[in-house]
Amino acid sequence: MRRCIKCKGEPAIDLKSNNTAFCKEHFIEYFLRQVARAIKKYNMFSSDERILVAVSGGKDSMALWDALLSLGYNADGLHVDLGIGEYSTGSRRICENFAASRGARLYILSLEDMYGTNMREIVRRTRRVSCSVCGTVKRYLMNLVVQQKGYRVVATGHNLDDETAALLGNLFGWQEGYLARQYPHLPSTHARLPAKVKPLVRLGELETETYCRLKGIDFLADDCPLARGATSLAYKELINSLEEKMPGTKQRFLFGFWDRGRRNFTDTPVELKECSLCGQPTTAGTCLFCRLMQKAGLDPLIQPQVQEM
């Protein structure tokens, strides 16, 4: 194995995509530099902005939260407790312990406390794809917290692997609207909606896991039980097989699309109006969240009960 490119010390990670290796100290330095580089390149936010980080307890979101705090940003966490047995219990505990150890602010929303049910039951009642239902519910609740607490930027832990898999899926389906919108920084399109940023896009899952391990950051290694069979996993397997044979494929594919390919796709602007039930921005008469909750037999107008640590 190669030695550290900076000090020739014992390597903690070997990055075939960059044809280099780093020891513990210099990998952490490299990781933070890549996050800072993404923030600057895509003009994600300024040093004095308050950032809300969506944290699940997994390696990516925990690495992101730690990196932003280490870089000196004012980053608070938001965790949505989905009520999925031991998986959710462990996820929440990790987020709470991290916030306590770093003296960071953490907001928690519990589906059980708010609606008296859990995500598995909501998916069963709506008979929709689990990841789609979960994403809709979490985005809606996050937007309510954003409005209530006054944030303008939400950061998520989407990494290089996530983005290349999404790009591959969108290209296979020729999803022109999604292709036009796939970018590390999506500005706000409405006064009630935050800008959304992805500071980990220059780093893959190997890097985020290694960063957590080297810094002693606890994370939940288990995949969400509701995500089994998701098409994104198949796209990741495909792109990973190409990366193994041709290191650097992910970076060339994704960054090449953002630098040159994305301009060939246009997203038709749509007029946002108020949902007939909750009043939140939507493209339809009634927003998808309200329709889903009604189908599940739940009250969509319940206001979020935010617990703050």
Automatic annotation (TrEMBL):
GO terms for biological process: tRNA wobble position uridine thiolation. Zn(2+) 2 binds at residues 275, 278, 287, 290. The keyword Repeat does not apply. Residues 51-223 form the tRNA(Ile)-lysidine/2-thiocytidine synthase N-terminal domain. Residues 3-28 form the 2-thiouridine synthetase TtuA-like N-terminal LIM domain. InterPro entries: Rossmann-like_a/b/a_fold, TilS/TtcA_N, tRNA_thiolation_TtcA_Ctu1, TtuA-like_LIM_N. This is TIGR00269 family protein. It comes from Desulfofundulus australicus DSM 11792.
